[in-house]
Amino acid sequence: MRFIGNAPVDGEVRAIASGALATGDPVVVNADGTVSNIFTNLTIFNNASTFVPAIATNGSGTFLLIYRDDGNSQAGMAVAGTISGSSVTLGTAVQITSEMGNSRLSTAVVYDPDNSKFVIAYRDANNDSYLTSRVVTVTGTTVSLGTAVVVNSQTVTTVDIAYDTSANKVVFGWRGGSGTLVAGAVGTVSGTSISFGSTTIVASKRPDYMNVVYDSNANKTAFFYKDAADTGDGYYVVCTVSGTSISGGSTAAFDAADVQYISAAYDSTAQKIVIAYRDEGNSGGYGSAIVGTISGTSMTFGSETSFTDAQAGDISVSYDSTNNQTFIFCEKSNTLQGIIGTVSGTSISFGTPATLSSGGGKSYTSSTFSVSSGKVLVAFRDQAASNIGTLLTVDSNFAGGNLTSENFIGFANSGYADGQSAAINSTCMVDSNQTSLTAGQTYYVQTSGALGTTPADPSVVAGTAISSKSIIVKG
Fold it and tell me: Which DSSP string corresponds to 148-171?
């Protein structure tokens, strides 16, 4: 017998994907016969190659995403959405600029609660890669853009912004000015416009991986960055806003080793800042975190703690003010990992990591906590699914998937977009798209979509590992 087209393979299941699937994802069958990742809370916000997504929420169920859309001639785009429970509704994306830069930290977005507006910052490749800002009004899921304002008429490569709730100003930090040093400026929102005070060089270093965090207890804004011109060490500078001016205190290292992928968030309960990063001095790049305390215009730090046991990349940190815990998301071994940390004094401890999306690289991760829904929204570029823009929602313990005791059918053998015909490695097949397995060990599907050696609730056997990457799917 001859087969034309896709010949069936014993044990292989073919079905239409409902939502994106990444290579190696555990898959369940739905009531309508489609198949899904165990997390139903995956939403595609851009079904084309996506770069540098950045996300922020107003805390009341509305969020704004900006990104570069390579399916639209590298245009910069903005899309608003709402979240209720785990249900995400997206509006229509609008164009910010005809060409947006794609350096790793070339976009940022923050919510201004005093004016009920979002403020965005981006590298406008259509205008000599100048640092540019707009005020964004979101009504429902409809986006309205204010006039584009050039913050700094020089090429920028890294930028971040934060909102100072004491001064009622937006604080911008970037690499720019004479000698591409640590620059800052203060933005004032009025209606749908934003204006800026003078640019100030707040530290004489050449920064990379810039991250800006406002500390409401100290009424200061801290810039964290890598010293790209010299040692590569992780540095900070504490900045003070006065009117439309900004000044920096002394700059010093928070980690005396080469660091990358810096991300930080303010813990309003502990009144501390959690800084997470990849530390090349820690086993060649483990994910590491440290707790910082602002005093005047300087900082002190506790001891560094690892949150991965392998090299980490594309780190994003968000603080869950409802449960008083810090979420850290990162790429590890081509999977998206989630880790929950708890601050005590000047230390942070971590729970068990969860694999939130597997099967290929997850990059340009950005996250924000939505108070009204109690969820963290995580935007990323899914390299396992043609680099599409994907939004994941997770709750306080990474649970909430759609796994039952009966609906697990196997593992996706490749990456598939929503609506594609997907091939699933099912009963008695060998799936070779996993990582960090122990041969001879029985593995169980967890409600997070990860594999574990102990049963979850419900108890679902995934299969038996025959190598670190391969598992015989349950019979």
Answer: -EEEEEEE-SBEEEEEETTTTEEE
